Amino acid sequence: MKFKLWEHVKVKKNGVIGEIIDISENIYGKVYIVESDTKGERDDADYPGEWPLYDCQEDEIERIEIALSVNTIKYIISRVIDNANDDDLQDRSEFTMGRRLAYYEILDTIKNELIVHEQDLKEYGLDFNLEDRFL
Q1: What is the C-alpha to C-alpha distance for residues 132 and 108, in angstroms, rounded to an integer?
Q2: Which residue in 9, 20, 50, 128 has a CA-CA distance of 20 to 30 Å to 31?
Q3: pLDDT along the chain (135 residues), means of 10
Q4: Interhelix angle for 70-85 vs 94-116, to 10°?
């Protein structure tokens, strides 16, 4: 199994989740330097510090998938809505109308996916008419 730079992995011996920040090779094979995703000193780190580092052979780490939490998704949606609301509603210039259309398309796509996945639109801050607000 080959790992790539910046890939998220778990260090098997201690369960630390981190990112591969360097790959080198020695007589035993590839060495992956994994930086912990969690800030703070750890006694088991190969290189202690604010962001602990670990020297790992290929068989000492495993690939993991990082998924966004629901709270992170809600936050991202709220940021897009806030940015879209920053436009002056009286400004009907071609640029501003194009910008509003772009925000509308983004939020409409997200809203439709939430509906398909039977999610509560209110929970995600999308329980309003997008056309009335942005077009």
Answers
A1: 12
A2: 50
A3: 90 95 93 93 92 95 84 90 86 91 96 92 95 89
A4: 150
